[in-house]
Structure formats: C-alpha cells, structure tokens
Design brief:
Rossmann fold; GMP Synthetase, Chain A, domain 3; 9-stranded mixed beta sheet; 4-stranded mixed beta sheet; 11 helices; 20 strands; 31% helix; binds 5'-O-[hydroxy(phenylacetyl)phosphoryl]adenosine
Length: 432
C-alpha cells in the first residue's frame, strides 16, 4: 500500500512545482517572522521576491547547528510561543542543546511522515509496534509513537532501559514490529537468543535508524530475526525520524520531498553536486511552521537519485549514509569512516558485530586499535586460533581502510551495549 499515493508518485515536474510554491511561502514566512533569517538575507542583499522557485534555492544562505546554538533556545521559531505545542532538543555533545519547536500542524505532518515510513515497511493497523527509541527530548520515541498511532497500529511505548521486559512483552503481546536503533536491536536479538526465545516471537519488521549502520548489518539483523529490517532517517532540526525511509526494495531511502527539499553539496566548496554524486545532505523545510529551516547542513554524507523506484514511488532516494562529514577520522593522514571498519568485520563474518575504535597519539604518531568481540570458544577450546583470527581481521581492515591497526580480541559482552546511539569511537587525541 502506498500511504499517500498522490504525493509519493507524482511526476518530477509536478513535485518541482509543489516544492517551488511551498519554498516561496517558507522564504516569505522566515523573512517576516524570524529576525535572524531576515538579517542573514539582508546581508546577502536578498529579498523574498528574489526567490521564485527551486531554481533560486542556491541564492539562499545555509543554516548550521551553530545558528541554532546562537539563537538558543527559541530564536529561530517563526510563530509565537503560544502556537508551539511541543519542543524537542538534541543531546548535542558540545555546547548547548539545539532546541526545536512544533505547532499542532507540524506534529500532524510529522506523524504522517512516520506513518508513511511504517507503511513502506509493510505495516498497517493490524500491527503491534513496540517503540524502543528513547522517549523524551530525543525525537525517536515520540516521533515513532505518533507515527504508529497515525497508521492505526497498536503501539507499545517501551522506550529504552529494560530489555528483559521488552522481550517478555514482545513474546506475550505478539509484537509484529519494532522501532529502535540497529545496535539496540542486535542486543535484543542476542537476549532473545540467549533465552531460547527466538522462535517464540511474531516479529516481522524493524524500523531502525538514528545512527549509521551498514547494509551488511541490516542483512545480519534480517537473518538473525527472520524479519525485514528498514532504514529510517531523520534529524531533530528538520523534524525527527521520518524524513526518509527505505521501501521493500532497499534501494535507497525515499525522502518525503513534499515537505523536505533535499540538496547535495560539496562540503568544502558548498557547490551543489549532481545526481549520484556523494556529498553533504542539505534540507530546506517547506511546510514547517514552528521552526522552518533554510538550507540546513546536516553534515550527513550521501548521494541522491531521482529515478522511479520499483515500488512505484517517484520520491527522490538518498543512498545509505557514508558517515558524517564530521565523524570522519583522519588517522595518519588517511580518512577513515567507522562504517568502513564495521563493513569489513561483518564481511569477514567471524566475529560478533561489536567493536570499538580507539585512536590515540603516541610520540606524535597516531595509533589505531580496534577491539572486537569474539565467541567464548576462542577463550577456551579454540584459544590457539585467536592469533590467526586477529591476523585475518587485521588484514581485512587494512584492505578496507588502507591502514594497519592493532587488533585486540575481547571476550563476549566486554564492549558496552547501547540502548540508544552506540559509541564506537574513542578518539583520545581530542581529549588532550
Ligand atoms: O536521530 C532522529 C531519528 C530518530 C532518526 C529515530 C531515525 C530514528 P538526532 O538525534 O537529531 O535525530 O540525530 C540526527 O543521526 O544527522 C544522522 O547523522 C544520524 N542518523 C539518523 N538516522 C540515521 C540513519 C535522530 N538511518 C543524526 N542512518 C543525523 C545513519 C542516521 N545515520
């Protein structure tokens, strides 16, 4: 079923016309209602009338997380506070949190977008969806919750924190779908397996996101749990989960372009890039009332494709994320993405999917250690094979990232399990 066929299957010309009309309104709204944007546009000599459609998008200034911090907490809101019915905030590792506000209409559009994503995962009102993203200021829990309700499904609002209770309810309630981070789902699968419960569940789909994961990991989850695993993307600044999601063909994530106008730019020159070229994803929200953002730089690296999908949708598709322009590690002058290490480990297929990348600097030289969890048997009857396995991993990683790494194999459950976003990199160089 296509949730909103009228919007998801329109021709490129129709979509562009809709986006243009909505962009013009948005620019007018932020110019008149948000002093910060008005000043930014005036500094560039732009007036709302200069923006006649999508073709003029490049004239507009970018917005970054710093702009949200500079106007903390409500400085970019475009409506009076009395019209804001909810705020969320992203955890932000440095500085102040970035705060976003939603009007009643924003919440309604958000829940429709998430419902579209769930419907792309084959779910409908007959499903029982366990939401195991964190509830609270993070957009994951409430975003998925409202979307599942909008779909008409039965929601089990688990949040994170009690995996045993979650698996018990999953069995007892006959839960058919789960929404959580991919790393948490792996932990849930591990718990089910340890308790001998894998064949006692009715799960058929998972809608995972909020952190980077690889296609190999998605397939591993599917095989372990005998389900379909979908990739859902979003960010609090733009809305939360439900900005894009993949369909049953898993050939990219459909962007709900009737609400979020995407661009791919070169993160160094800021020049727009063409179809299928990898660069930084930038969004302009074209229906948001609470905090409309113009050309928001997500720092997420991906490419975009405008071809029609096998599912029938014409919505642009973004490819699986290649990381963030700011989580890229530079080790001994080489650019390294944590997802490359993960892909190499999973491809090798001899270890658990838990790893930690530790970067340090000794005598002005970068060091790279990768800790990987291996099966218990390597610490008992297969102990003589430990060294061989470490060598194979070292070789696979060298092939993947072009750098040698010290491989430290650790016992099961050594690496901390995450219930939200997994921390997979410790860069000690930054702590000095
Ligand atoms: O993580 C919203 C969300 C909740 C998305 C639940 C999906 C599911 P933030 O906390 O603002 O919002 O973090 C946004 O997380 O810029 C990406 O770097 C990363 N991210 C989110 N989804 C994916 C994904 C939520 N599917 C940041 N793949 C984004 C890779 C993702 N990275």
């Amino acid at each position: 079923m296509i949730w909103n066929e009228a919007k998801e299957c329109m021709s490129r010309d129709e979509m562009r016309a809709l986006q243009s009309a909505r962009l013009v309104k948005t620019v007018d709204r932020v110019y008149h209602n948000v002093e910060y944007y008005r000043k930014k546009m005036q500094a560039l000599g732009i007036e709302p009338g200069d923006i006649k459609g999508v073709e003029d998008l490049h004239k507009l200034p970018f917005t970054t997380k710093d702009d949200l911090r500079d106007t903390y907490p409500f400085g970019l809101f475009a409506v009076p506070q009395s019209q804001i019915v909810r705020v969320h905030a992203s955890s932000g590792t440095t500085g102040k949190a970035t705060v976003v506000g939603y009007t009643r209409k924003d919440i309604s559009i958000w829940s429709e977008c998430v419902a579209r994503a769930f419907s792309q995962a084959g779910l409908n009102r007959d499903d029982i969806i366990q939401v195991a993203y964190g509830y609270g200021l993070f957009t994951g829990g409430l975003g998925a919750h409202y979307g599942a309700e909008n779909l008409g499904a039965t929601v089990v609002p688990m949040s994170t924190g009690n995996t045993k209770k979650l698996t018990t309810m999953m069995k007892d309630f006959g839960v058919t779908a789960i929404a959580c981070t991919p790393s948490y789902l792996l932990h849930i699968a591990e718990t089910l397996e340890a308790d001998g419960d894998l064949d006692k569940i009715k799960l058929k789909a998972a809608i995972c996101g909020a952190e980077p994961w690889t296609e190999q990991m998605r397939i591993q989850i599917e095989e372990k749990l005998h389900i379909n695993a979908h990739d859902i993307y979003g960010l609090s600044e733009i809305m939360g989960p439900g900005v894009a999601c993949d369909c049953q063909y898993h050939k990219g994530l459909h962007v709900y372009e009737d609400h979020f106008l995407p661009e791919i730019i070169d993160p160094k020159t800021f020049e727009p890039l063409g179809e299928d070229e990898t660069g930084e994803l930038v969004f302009t929200t074209i229906t948001k009332e609470g905090i409309p953002l113009i050309r928001y730089r997500t720092k997420d690296l991906t490419s975009i494709n405008y071809g029609k999908c096998e599912c029938g949708r014409t919505l642009a598709r973004i490819s699986r994320f290649k990381g963030r322009s700011d989580d890229m590690l530079i080790i001994r002058g080489v650019n390294v993405f944590p997802s490359q290490v993960e892909a190499a480990l999973l491809e090798l297929g001899e270890t658990a999917p838990y790893y930690m990348i530790i970067v340090d600097r000794v005598n002005n030289l970068d060091t790279l250690e990768i800790q990987v969890e291996v099966g218990e048997e390597y610490f008992s009857d297969k102990i003589s094979e430990l060294e061989g396995l470490a060598n194979r991993i070292g070789h696979a990683i060298q092939q993947a990232i072009g750098l040698s790494a010290k491989i430290k194999l650790v016992e099961p459950k050594t690496i901390e399990r995450s219930m939200s976003k997994a921390v997979r990199v410790i860069d000690k160089r930054k702590l000095v």
